[in-house]
Amino acid sequence: MRQPLRKELEPVAASFLVKELVEPHFDPNWHFHPHYQLFLVKEGTGTRFIGDSISTFAPGDLVFLGPNLPHLWRSDQPYFDRQSTLRTQGIVVYFPEDFLGPAFFEKQEMSAIRQLLANARHGLTWSNGTHDRAVSVLTRLVSQPVGFGRLMGLLNLLNELAESTEYQLLASSTYVNSLRPEDTDRNIYHRMQVVHDYVLNHFPEELSLETVADLAGMTAPAFCRYFKARANKTFSEFVSEVRIGHACKLLMNTPLSITQVSFESGYRTLSNFNRQFKDITGLTPSGYVKTYRQL
User: Taking every annotated instance into account, which residue ranges of this chain make up the domain HTH araC/xylS-type (predicted)?
Assistant: First the structure.
């Protein structure tokens, strides 16, 4: 039986949970839960979905999520191969909204962190010095015993993240999780999981809307409406973002030509690839390579 989309964490005696994850691959299920989540990828690559945001991830990926924001760190396909010796590793922190009491963050001194928590409902990531310091703190935090020092370490980290301007919001401002927690065990709420899995496994191929709709148990027009309402984008836009994300990874990590990358990412004409690449990234493929190899 498929795991429900809504997850409940095991209760712990401490005010928050921090742990290190070491698995062959990250959890492949598109899900959400009522806790805040701070997650650092230490090892592993793949595609990250946060609400209606799609991006590739690699070691160093740092994201803070608010409650009930659907998400998925989908490891690349080689991590799922039976003979694979690859592994993923990460550090995750979970805490409920009232982990320090129902009104703690309403105090005047907590205004910056209160805004951070509000922004986290659309997902946040950080860069530059803020990112590096957060990685250092999380690495220490996971080895600290439960106690006052560990709690202060988390609060200091949240305060630094709150005061930083080196952040980016992930899900769009218009994104809303339309999934109702009380209904998430029903088959209808596994449709997005089926679609994610199929597209991520078949995006280099010619994708048929009718095939995907059939997998979701819907007619093509009904599926298009359903997908747009829940993903805040059309199915074709979703496929394009997955393909261009894969293309970005190939451009940066392989010696393939732009034409080869275009084909490997599911495009049959170079002109269509170039157009969609610029629409999504704001750069041409050659401009992307030139810009990011200089960083």
Answer: 193-291
pTM of the model: 0.81
CATH of domain 186-292: 1.10.10.60
On whether the CB atoms of residues 30 and 5 are closer than 8 A, the answer is yes
Strands 88-95 and 17-23: what pairing? antiparallel
What are the residue boundaries of the structural domains of the chain, listed by start? 17-169, 186-292
Q: What is the DSSP letter of 74?
A: E
Per the DSSP assignment, residues forming a β-bridge with 36 are 95
Q: Region 186-211: what's the mean pLDDT?
A: 83
In angstroms, the first-to-last Cα distance of the chain is 45
pLDDT digits (tens, 9 = 90+) for 10-66: 556 788 999 999 999 998 888 888 899 999 999 999 999 998 899 999 999 999 999
Q: Are 158 and 116 in contact (CB under 8 A)?
A: yes
Confidence band of 2 (pLDDT split at 50, 70, 90): very low
Q: Beta 71-75 vs 53-57: how paired, if at all?
A: unpaired
17-169 to CATH, choices 3.90.380.10, 2.120.10.30, 3.30.450.20, 2.60.120.280 = 2.60.120.280
Which residues are CB-neighbours of 130 under 8 A, at least 6 positions away?
A: 160, 161, 164, 166, 167
Query: For residues 222 and 226, what is the distance between their CA atoms, to the nearest angstrom?
Result: 6
Give residue-wise pLDDT tens across range 204-253: 999 999 999 999 889 999 999 989 888 889 999 999 999 999 999 899 88
Alpha helix locations (H) across 71-142? 111-119, 128-141
Angstrom distance (rounded) from CA 199 to CA 240: 10
- In terms of Cα–Cα distance, which of 199, 236, 195 is closest to 217? 195
CB-CB contact of 134 with 157 (8 Å): yes
